[in-house]
Design brief:
CATH class of the largest domain in chain A: Alpha Beta
Oligomer: homodimer
Structural class of chain A: alpha+beta
Largest interface: A-B, 43 and 44 residues
CATH architecture of the largest domain in chain A: Alpha-Beta Complex
Shape of chain A: elongated
Keywords (chains A, B): Aminopeptidase, Hydrolase, Protease
Number of helices of chain A: 9
Order of helices and strands of chain A: HEHEEEHEHEHHHEEEEEEHHEEEEEEE
Strand order of the largest sheet of chain A: 4-3-2-1-5-6
Strand content of chain A: 15-25%
Region (Disordered) (chains A, B): 196-218
Number of domains of chain A: 2
Domain Peptidase M24 (chains A, B): 153-355
Domain Creatinase N-terminal (chains A, B): 8-145
Helix content of chain A: 25-40%
Protein name (chains A, B): Aminopeptidase P family protein
Distance between the termini of chain A: 44 Å
């Protein structure tokens, strides 16, 4: 695995050199994790002309899940850290700037979208002659297209989420609260080998159903409810997402069937539009048009899908204002939903990997059925 | 409750006026929560000379737990947000700066320890004539001393954690993994009414025991192990912490009894030192001296306690380099621990509220026994 991280750092080095900064300071934890294999608390990565260095404000904490620091990477521990994440005493970013200045580096590219104004000022004050540039979202861009190793971790995560959801569906649901169902799902994720949930598991019943990111409450599942479940597994740091809506009881009402069919058609349209070279906004548009045609366009959220990876919500966005096109090997969610205030609604959410048609088209990672199940 | 938030905002307004900025922009979510009762995702609080305004980048999400936005607060929703937390399109902080400039405000105090360099630049670019000052950690300072309402929420959270821990101790532990025990504790926290765990529950067995912030693994509890458990409940947003170490089997080994007695003595010394007016570093020192006298000073972490409240780790710090003195009504943890690599160790962790001697001295919130239990 060590080569993977060295290759990523070398790609970053090339990009930085091309934009005029030979030395870069990566402070955003998820970016440190991507480039170093793990992100000890408060650690930063100093990417030099030739050698890279991980500076950590304390002895390395045990890392979550299977994160292992690249053994080829030199690590330096700072003495005497007592501060929290906002303290500048023992701040690894400040120490890195100091070190770079000592080594005669004249310009350092930093992550201005992550460093706070206070930390940036502390960097300037320890190294007043060092020019601080902005590395921008280069690491986020590198992270966009996944290698097959990353995709296989997402695939395992999706299998785990499918298993946890499948087991839940076999149990009695009526009378149980949203919070208990969410906790049971999270326990099952861990039982099946997840590091933990990829995000706060959402279970929404009755009038809550169909709401994006609904936080579970003490409401109990009742006959006739829509039940929307959205969960994901974190596996070796990679996060996937699945969302399904079910109906409780023997026969769904007509409005439930109609709404379900509409959201299902929108979600299928979005999935089928995924291909390398397609504009992200066009994927959003085809899904949105279906919902619009059913008269529920106003109920749609501002985004119908997004990238996943080390973060549960990362680039690209599938939204009307999104720029850019899809590439092969980019994993995304497709998750339109409609929530009718007071009544409830439907969300259907899959994680897929964009693949060219020659490879069989989009690869569906979350394979739980999307039929409207009556439970 | 509405008055509580208005009073907090008025205190902040007084502080800001005293330091020359009549208008402040609060962007750090936990600070927004403190001043507004809830922190919708991406929302910021614009504290004006007379009126305050919450700017939210989208329709309000359902809030976690019992967080309710102060009804007396004016709320403005920004149109057309599609960006994530790093996107500046639809950034409520940028919109707030724009609005302040429109209203003829000449200087705006911002949280430079929270705003990133990129967002700060976006503020400057929408409102080039607006002078941006630093509000510093004023809100964090206001949050330090808790009112009795806040303390009662912490007290309920501590009771919940005690209950969850007590129930676990009645079950069979040998053969179960750290991960399962941690999940069971988290489920019990929610069963008893917590919003959720206050932080990732730590269960550490055998050689892992005594390690601060140990992430649960698949190691199973064995006869003769030390078992360290650290958990907390979040209740209406407030977070407490309890940590205990047990021994598995009928009779602890001599080294286990010795180490336990040492850490217990250190923790008691720390607890007994808590009083209004005492220097934070002195509380740390008395606990540290006990551990030092037992020859384990090197194994001590850099901090023996910290404040709790809306964050699980907030000011003050109980550490050798900490500045400042304790006040009445400040809740802190006292949590010395010793971890011997390869063997394991002991942590004992309580949440207490600093009270004057006339009121009975420090109030212990986490009341689970600190005897060395053999389970």
């Amino acid at each position: 695995m060590s080569e993977v991280y060295a290759n990523r750092r070398n790609r970053l080095r090339d990009r930085c050199s091309a934009s005029g900064s030979a030395t870069a300071l990566i402070s955003r934890p998820v970016n440190v994790r991507y480039l170093a294999g793990a992100a000890p608390r408060g650690a930063v990565l100093l990417l030099g002309r030739e050698e890279d260095l991980l500076l950590s404000p304390g002895p390395p904490d045990p890392q979550p899940g299977a994160d292992r620091l690249d053994e080829a990477l030199r690590v330096q521990t700072l003495p005497g850290r007592t501060g929290g994440p906002n303290a500048t005493g023992g701040d690894a970013a400040v120490a890195a700037a100091d070190l770079a200045a000592d080594q005669g580096v004249d310009s350092l590219a930093v992550e201005e979208h992550h460093l706070t104004v206070s930390r940036h000022r502390a960097l300037r004050s320890v190294a007043p002659r060092l020019r601080l540039d902005d590395v921008g979202g280069i690491v986020e861009q590198l992270r966009l297209v996944k290698d097959e190793e990353e995709i296989s971790l997402l695939r395992v995560g999706a299998e785990i989420a499918d298993q946890a959801l499948g087991e839940l569906l076999e149990s009695i649901l009526v009378g149980r609260t949203e919070r208990h169902l969410a906790l049971e799902l999270e326990r099952r994720l861990v039982d099946h080998g997840a590091d933990g949930p990829a995000f706060t598991t959402s279970v929404a019943t009755g009038p809550h159903s169909g709401r994006r990111g609904h936080r579970p409450t003490d409401r109990r599942v009742e006959e006739g409810d829509f039940l929307t479940v959205c969960l994901g597994a974190a596996y070796h740091g990679y996060r996937c997402e699945i969302g399904r809506t079910f109906v409780i009881g023997t026969s769904p009402a007509d409005w439930q069937i109609e709404l379900y069919d509409l959201v299902f058609a929108a979600q299928r349209a979005g999935r089928e539009a995924l291909a390398p070279g397609v504009a992200c906004r066009d994927v959003d548009r085809v899904a949105r048009q279906v919902i619009d045609s059913g008269g529920h366009g106003d109920a749609l959220p501002q985004m119908t899908g997004h990238g996943v990876g080390l973060e549960i919500e990362e680039d690209p966005q599938l939204a009307p204002t999104a720029m850019g096109k899809l590439d092969a090997c980019v994993p995304v969610t497709v998750e339109p939903g409609v929530h009718l205030p007071g009544r409830g609604g439907v969300r259907i959410d899959d994680t897929l990997v964009v693949r060219p048609e020659a490879d069989g088209g989009p690869e569906l990672l979350t394979i739980t059925t999307k039929e409207l199940l009556a439970l």
